[in-house]
Amino acid sequence: MPELPEVETTRRGIDAVITGKTLRRLLVRESRMRWPIPADLPGLLSGRAVLECARRGKYLLLRFEHGTQIVHLGMSGSLRSVPAGEAPRKHDHVDWIFDHATLRLHDPRRFGAVLWHPEAAGPVAAHPLLARLGIEPFDPRFDGAWLHSQFRNRAIAVKQALLAGDAVVGVGNIYASESLFRAGIDPRTPARRISLARCARLADMVRTTLADALASGGSTLRDYVGASGQPGSYFEIHAAVYERAGLPCRACGTPIRRLVQGQRATYYCPSCQRR
Prior knowledge:
Largest sheet: 5 strands, antiparallel
Strand order of the largest sheet: 2-1-7-8-6
Oligomer: single chain
Strand content: 15-25%
Shape: elongated
CATH class of the largest domain: Mainly Alpha
CATH architecture of the largest domain: Orthogonal Bundle
Distance between the termini: 28 Å
Number of strands: 11
């Protein structure tokens, strides 16, 4: 699934292309997404200017004067700029057509979303999909004290607490494994047992890991591509533990182990990461 670095990379790419520009046409080829695309959405947006391309967690927020379009890339989706007149491929479901560019949503599994939050409904942050999201990892308030306060009464494993999205949003499966490795914390450790000092280390490593991924354009999650159509490269080259089960740890040489937590694969070094 595209996580925060992939979504933020996409946001930066499309922001440079469409912010301040007028949407001439929204073309919906397939409305049966995770939630049906509203039938009246093309009419609502035609001739309207995009005021801002923002992000909250894994959601892209395209702000217009009269509301905000909420876009989610699902499990394997991408939103990219395509040349004028380029024929759609299979699973190209939605086009945002501007005078100078076309953005195209590609989503093989149709787990993504294209929804509308009208200005009259209040702040988009209050939308049910966004209201319960945790703090952003690059928010100045996100630090060891914050993480410690969120973990204090949680018996679940720290890896699952990171993925839950209510303590901090957008870490994702790959980045949780990598952040815990960098912090030296065993992913099976109950969240409430993580000390304040270790929470501070983990918060630092979450930010550092995500920043490194952003600098390289995201991970190579199978068919993930950014807004330019180019794949990311960071974890294909530099992953310390993710998808390296049985291979030697880059730090100590101990074979990396794999386990399943909450139906998600977790990778860790049994020597470098302590409970």
